[in-house]
Amino acid sequence: MYKIVSIPGDGIGPEVVAGALEVLNAVAKKHGFEVEIEEHLFGGASYDVYGSMLTDETLEACKNCDAVLLGAVGGYKWENLPHDKKPEAALLKLRKELGLFANLRPAKVYDALVASSTLKTEVVQGTDFMVFRELTGGIYFGQPRGYDENRGWNTMVYERYEVERIARLAFEYAQKRGNAKVTSIDKANVLEVSQFWRNIVHEVHQDFPEIELVDMYVDNAAMQVVRNPKQFEVIVTGNIFGDILSDISGMITGSLGMLPSASIGSEHALYEPIHGSAPDIAGQNKANPIATIASVAMMFENSFNRPEVAGDIYAAIEGALAAGLRTGDIAAPGEAICSTTEMTAAIVARI
Ligand SMILES: NC(=O)C1=CN([C@@H]2O[C@H](COP(=O)(O)OP(=O)(O)OC[C@H]3O[C@@H](n4cnc5c(N)ncnc54)[C@H](O)[C@@H]3O)[C@@H](O)[C@H]2O)C=CC1
Ligand SMILES: CC(C)CC(=O)C(=O)O
Ligand SMILES: [Mg+2]
């Protein structure tokens, strides 16, 4: 029995999480295990009811389960709140409180999508890399931070232990992938904090001499992901660079709506699509649920060590895409567009 806490959040969050939970229930039925799903409000949805973006009750529930499934937070309604009161601040707090220091964001191109989409086949087909994004440090957390009428400021700071643990995780993963190449992405030509990052990554690398390590500046990396994504196998990078580069990677795979992620720490794990709450399409049954459904697959790989369950989910996604199912974000011109619920049903039918 797996105890899952579901926090759909805002915007398209509830729509894509509903699809992912249908898939979760379908694999539970097929593989003969039980899941207990406990749903909690989070982000703006929680603020509107309780006056708090992250209640103690939701936080406790997230700490006392086997895995958390998150949709997304944020939206127009809450964007003028002070920074420390915004839904996004609650997400940062949740990540910090759960100790989720590593965000794994796989960029994998589905063959079925390449065959009929606007993706440039020869450039992207076969792309399959994993981004290890540091998630609880860097400029999103550094103090001091603030702004007044004359200045705005944030602080990018990394502690030795923060770089060591994410670098070690990335090298260990590379080892498991048959000594895959690791690219460490920074801005060491300008930022002292990046030179520090680079030094520590090289120190950790000494324990993994069989693995090739490449350093790359982040501006070049953004271009290289678009130009030749297949050169990457494992990327390790800081919080803000990983955030930006993984959205770029999303486009390589067809859409932000395709990319899942696992946010992991030593005690807890949370699974979430890389995209946000997409308020422009919220409530219209248009969102692509695949990123969130694939996040459930990552849950079975990372938290439950059930690769066969994850494999069924990936195969069902591939099957639905091969059958021509396309939400608006991944439809090539002239292709029929399906809804969130139609895509979900097509995937569930293939479990
Ligand atoms: N993890 C989270 O909860 C995140 C929350 N956000 C928040 O989400 C809100 C909107 O932010 P944006 O910058 O617009 O980023 P976004 O990722 O929500 O949307 C960017 C674009 O991609 C599209 N898109 C995203 N997910 C999609 C899906 N599953 N299917 C189809 N199209 C999809 C949207 O319609 C939009 O045009 C903001 O409040 C932002 O702070 C942003 C990123 C991550
Ligand atoms: C706090 C979030 C809005 C940051 C983000 O964009 C992400 O984690 O992808
Ligand atoms: Mg982001």
What does this entry look like structurally?
There is one protein chain. By secondary structure, the chain is of the alpha/beta class. It has 2 domains: 1-103 and 258-351, Isopropylmalate Dehydrogenase; 128-252, Isopropylmalate Dehydrogenase (3-Layer(aba) Sandwich), CATH 3.40.718.10. The protein is 42% helix and 16% strand. Helix 1 (13-31) crosses helix 11, helix 1 (13-31) runs parallel beside helix 13 and helix 9 runs parallel beside helix 10. The longest helix has 19 residues, at 13-31. The radius of gyration is 20 Å and the shape is globular. The two termini are 19 Å apart. 1,4-dihydronicotinamide adenine dinucleotide binds next to helix 4. Residues 88, 91-92, 243, 274 line the site of 2-OXO-4-methylpentanoic acid. Residues 3-347 form the Isopropylmalate dehydrogenase-like domain. Its EC number is 1.1.1.85. Mg(2+) binds at residues 219, 243, 247. Pathway: Amino-acid biosynthesis; L-leucine biosynthesis; L-leucine from 3-methyl-2-oxobutanoate: step 3/4.
Q: What's the short story on this structure?
A:
The chain has 351 residues and is α/β, with parallel strands linked by helices.
List the secondary-structure elements in sequence, H or E: EHEHHEHEHHEEEHEHEHEHEEHHH
Distance between the termini: 19 Å
CATH class of the largest domain: Alpha Beta
The gyration radius over C-alpha positions equals: 20 Å
Fourth CATH level, the homologous superfamily of the largest domain: Isopropylmalate Dehydrogenase
How many discrete structural domains? 2
**Cofactors, ions and other ligands in the entry:** 1,4-dihydronicotinamide adenine dinucleotide, 2-OXO-4-methylpentanoic acid, magnesium ion
What structural category characterises the helix and strand content?
A: alpha/beta
Estimated helix fraction: 40-55%
The order of strands across the largest sheet is 2-1-3-12-11-4-5-10-8-9
Could you tell me the number of beta strands? 12
- The oligomeric state is single chain
InterPro entries: IsoCit/isopropylmalate_DH_CS, IsoPropMal-DH-like_dom, Isopropylmalate_DH
Keywords: Amino-acid biosynthesis, Branched-chain amino acid biosynthesis, Cytoplasm, Leucine biosynthesis, Magnesium, Manganese, Metal-binding, NAD, Oxidoreductase
Subcellular location: Cytoplasm
Enzyme class: oxidoreductase
